[in-house]
Amino acid sequence: MNNTMISTIDESKTLPDVKEASGWYEYEPSYDGVITHINTAGARLFGFTSPDDVIGKKINELYAHPFDHEKTLSMLFRDGQTHGFFTLMKTRNGKLFFIRQSSSVILEGIDQYPIKVKSEFEHIQSMLSL
């Protein structure tokens, strides 16, 4: 497992250049996991040229381990939000990197049924440079 961690950190240095987009990124999947919004910086971080290339994809395609998405959903069901949850993600070309994400469920209607998830995340590399 340590070898995986070391190679993951080394691979994260080869991510697309997102210097103009350092800090927090955002995306919104529908409640069933289809991405309905992502900012340009977030799309570039995942290796896409524009948000339009990401919209319509399932969010679990961006997780390195799909069970991490299930874990996030479990926390959202239980608490209504997550804060500071670390997750291993992957670019469209399969390069791995870590994010720290905060998410909340957006509810609607009298019954307060969930319609989407609002997520913000920070690329770990930007945290390491502080």
Order of strands, main sheet, comes to 2-1-5-4-3
Per CATH, the superfamily is PAS domain
Count of helical stretches? 4
CATH class group: Alpha Beta
Count of β-strands: 5
Radius of gyration: 15 Å
CATH fold call: Beta-Lactamase
Structural class: alpha+beta
Give a verbal description of the structure.
The protein is α+β, with helices and mostly antiparallel strands. The chain has a single domain, classed as Beta-Lactamase (2-Layer Sandwich). Helix content is 28%, strand content 34%. The protein has 4 helices and 5 strands; from the N terminus they run αββααβββα. The chain has helices at residues 2-12, 40-45, 66-79, 124-128, and strands spanning 24-29, 35-38, 81-90, 96-108, 113-123. Strands 2-1-5-4-3 form a 5-stranded antiparallel β-sheet. It is globular. Mean pLDDT is 76; it is low at 1-22 and 126-130.
In short:
This protein has 130 residues and is α+β, with helices and mostly antiparallel strands. Helix content is 28%, strand content 34%. It is globular.
What would the keywords be for this entry?
single chain; 130 residues; alpha+beta; Beta-Lactamase; five-stranded antiparallel sheet; globular; disordered N terminus; disordered C terminus
